[in-house]
Amino acid sequence: MEAVLRSMFQSIAKNAAANKLAKKYGLRFGAQRFVAGETVASAIECVKMLNAKKIAATLDHLGEFVFTEEEAKHSAGMCLLTLDYIYTTKVESHLSVKLTSLGLDINKELCMNNMRAILERAQQYDNFVRIDMEDFFHCEAAIEIYEELCKKYDNVGLVIQAYLYRTVEDMERLHQIKANLRLVKGAYKESPNVAFPEKMDVDENFKKIIQMQLLNRYYAAIATHDENIINFTKKLVSDHQIQKNMFEFQMLYGIRVDLQNKLVEEGYKVRVYVPYGVDWFGYFMRRLAERPANSWFVLKNLFK
């Protein structure tokens, strides 16, 4: 049953009609547990609360189903606004971006121009931008764009997903430019032709790429709520005397707050991914797909 629910939520996440309906009803579906409001101001308040607990953040203006140049420019403008807010409020936060929201599916050069504008602003503020990895279809384009941007900018990183078969080769390729990487399991619905279908295999590949990144002494953001993966990382850095300033643990807003606090108490750097915006539906569905048991929040809030 859980597998059926997971597949259903992953499919609904890509449904434009469902996204439109969700916007009509706002966050009443229960998404406020995982999404820090619809405005940058509300998101900044959430970041302030995290910072008060010695937890850093990375803000993400959610955006999917971007089909026009105007929509892509609006999304880029929101990213610039987010960087402005981070700077003026002096919160500790990076910025995360999705290339499709910046026009990747419309025109690659449009996307590149938007990314350059964002990185220039971030550089002005001495801040850092992380390019989120999306589905397999966009993987190669994302890596190519990242490689191109790294020729000029040193304040940009990329996400790599453990569930893809190609990931180890991608890691070897990215090590040529000493890439700053966020390592994740992966949350999109993918074919078994391109991704490991079994969790056990994903976990083993996750451990392998964590080891590859850290033993090469390149910065690693290990994004997981899995305590087995966290404990594996702790032992790895202890055994190889890897300094704590070479990695951080990352988690999602609203998930495993207890574990976030525990890691901070143990002296580890923790960063929480804080999404906001009106286009929250696809993100919310992927969170439910990761843990279908959370779907009761949706039903409960629908009948309020």
UniProtKB/TrEMBL annotation:
The keyword Transferase is annotated on this UniProt entry: no
Oxidoreductase as UniProt keyword: yes
Cofactor: FAD
Transmembrane segments: none
Top-rank taxon, per record: Bacteria
Chemical reaction(s) catalysed: L-proline + a quinone = (S)-1-pyrroline-5-carboxylate + a quinol + H(+)
Record's protein name: proline dehydrogenase
